Amino acid sequence: MNSWKKYIALLLAMVMVCAMALTGCAGKKSSSENTASDEEPYSKDIFAMDTYMTVSAYGDAGEKAVDAAVKEINRLDALLSTGKASSEVSELTANDGGKLSADTNALMDAALDLYESTDHVFDITIYPVMKLWGFTDQNYKVPSDGDLKAALKLVDASTLDYNKSKKTVAFTVDGTQIDFGGIAKGYTSATVAQLYKDYGVTSGLVNLGGNVQTVGFKPDGTEWRIGIQHPEDENDMLGVVQTHDQAVITSGGYERNFEEDGVVYHHIIDPSTGYPADSGLISVTIVSEDGTLADGLSTSLFIMGKDKAIEYWKAHSKDFDFVLCEDDGTLVVSKGLKDKFTPQDENAKVEYVS
Amino acid sequence: MKKKDFIIIAVVLLVAGILALVFHFAGGDPGGSVRVKVDGKVTGTYALIEEQRVPFDTKYGHNTLVIEGGKAHIEDADCPDHYCEQQGEISKTGETLVCLPHKLVAEVVAGEASDVDIIAK
After folding, report:
1. pTM for this one?
2. A54 falls within a domain
3. Which residue from A74, A202, A219, B34 has the highest number of Cβ atoms inside 10 Å of its Cβ?
4. ipTM score of complex
5. Under an 8 A CB cutoff, do B120 and A227 touch?
6. Is the residue at A20 inside a domain?
7. What mean pLDDT comes out for the span A289-310?
8. Is A134 in the B-facing interface, judged by CB distances under 8 Å?
9. Average pLDDT of the residues in A271-297
10. Does the structure show a pLDDT above 50 at A35?
11. In which domain, by residue range, is A98 found?
């Protein structure tokens, strides 16, 4: 080669490499466009069910699937909202029961199964007590003992006369009120996951106000990395769960609470006392293929406390796994997550249960 | 190829490497920003490298987005629950601050990559 040719070659090479370096940086910048491709998901965010939700899906079917998911979420919200007089749940309460649609029938069935299996810890008739505390409309106050006792008398799901095949329910005690809030978001995320599959979406993420549902694997074929909120530090995580095709649902007193006379009262009410659960657990995460179950169990195990939670898991270990956080920071992890859970603090005390 | 050609190739690679590093750590990457949406509509995007206080007065109420030290949080909210002020600081892509009563969402876009895809809470 002549020397001038070499210099031109050198110059061209440098221009190319500079261009590559620049576009490499530019590529990082455009990460939040609403385009459906293998690289970026199609996403939408909505306010529904008293929370903020984001639904996203990768691939060619992503856009249609996400649009359908948003419609489905709004439909279920209209059906299940206790705040809307026209909702099916409000009408059931107003009429002391009635005919159930396919969705409320499925929810009633799941709710009463949980009521039995959790030994009455999960109870959809807790609503009058939640109302007294103001957790339904944010008019927070500590109820009087008399009011609480009266409301607690109405908390008893065994008084619901339910017929699954006829899809009917009758409230046999006057004043009974129901709320599917304890499983509605889990049921909704499971419904969306099924809808994604019907549309052929093989990779997607559903976040209903912190209730997470994964669909398939990430586009690169690896598992999703789901952080678990630290219950005592909003800028920290307890750890990371790697998963696919499962719901990851966390409950803790930090989610919704208020302070009165220096005492903090949180929203996870123990139906046996009418007061916020004080079981020694400060956070419970459930990982399960069944979003409805995961939602219901996250609060139920929180109320049960460590020992009963472990006992419950041992009887149902095929259905779910858990990460419990005790008030001293100890993490208790069921064996199915042994290779899937990584604590954020490498010095954290972690007990594995098998 | 001659020995000289190898030297030229080595020099080109070295220069390219240095340039890539410079672009990566200096002006080439401006860092992330916070995109604020009210009721689903984007109302503004604010660079995380700029210290700033951005007031939001909408029909729903007031919130102030504060950006300090490359992180964003919410202050001065007049919502009933004040949860938005208790959500800490955000700086990584995809992290959000949400004020439900005011339908306000602040989300980091094109920021530092997060270690996780999402946080269950």
Report:
1. 0.85
2. no
3. B34
4. 0.84
5. yes
6. no
7. 98
8. no
9. 97
10. no
11. 83-171
